[in-house]
Design brief:
Layout (H helix, E strand, L loop, with lengths): L3 E6 L3 H12 L12 E3 L5 E6 L4 H7 L4 E5 H7 L4 E5 L5 E8 L14 E4 L2 H10 L5 E4 L15 E6 L3 H5 L2 E10 L1 E5 L5 H21 L1 E9 L3 H7 L7 E4 L5 E9 L3 H10 L3 E7 L6
Parallel strand pairs: 1-3, 1-4, 7-8, 7-9
Antiparallel strand pairs: 2-3, 4-11, 5-11, 6-9, 6-10, 12-14, 12-15, 13-14
Amino acid sequence: MSKLKIAVQKSGRLHDDSMKILKDVGISIDNGKDQLKASARNFPLEVFYLRNGDIPQYLRDGVVDVAIIGENVLVEKGKDISIVEKLGFSTCKVSVAVPKSTKYSTIQDLEGKRIATSYPNTVNGFLQSNNVNAELHIINGSVEIAPNIGLADAIVDIVSSGSTLFKNNLKEVEVLLKSEAVLAVSPNISEDKQQILEKLQFRIKSVLKGRQNKYVLLNAPNKNLESIINILPGMNSPTVMPLAKEGWSSLHSVINKNDFWEIIDELKANGAEGILVCPIENMVI
């Protein structure tokens, strides 16, 4: 049987998040220390552990069929590669940062400046779109130290929490793009591998949908049912079941986590009691 070959970053936060979602979709992987690849025990999948920056070329060449990769890497090295799913984790920004002592008002302040970066294509595109001319110094790793050693006036790099910028006495002044992990596919994927990918993608969508929602159970007086039902969105409509206590019912529903607390406040204001909230592992719609 064919196996879908999937590339993931070999270390770091994106690696950990990638392995977690594969585990959450029910795939068990024999993952020994320092392995370059590993097979799944219960799904036709083979995992390749690669450098993030090398993955676009492996996809292009058909060495791997799909990859969980940072969107920022595809913007820099793989604009020709298709994204089939945005995954919502390992979020970051690609940003311009300058020393805290530098006065900065607009992107035009970078005119004629030296910029250190590992993302020359992304930076060049951004500068051209803003009619700014600057001198790029391409560095792989430790970009943040460039202004401190006099190599550059500014940097463009990944920003997650901002702690690295703070430690190097830098401040973020422009955001070039916002990035997250994505599922990208090789242009050379075969038909049988495409079928496996569709099964994997179905599982991933179910997990991602579950992460975005919470399951809510509550008790309410029957006289308030109509108003409470109007508050609860549900997947279709809330489930309503009578309680042993006369004049009361139990309602079950699903709430988007982004609206969760606002809806809970409305439910309480309309007489809901005994509100229980549960995480959802998967949502198959």
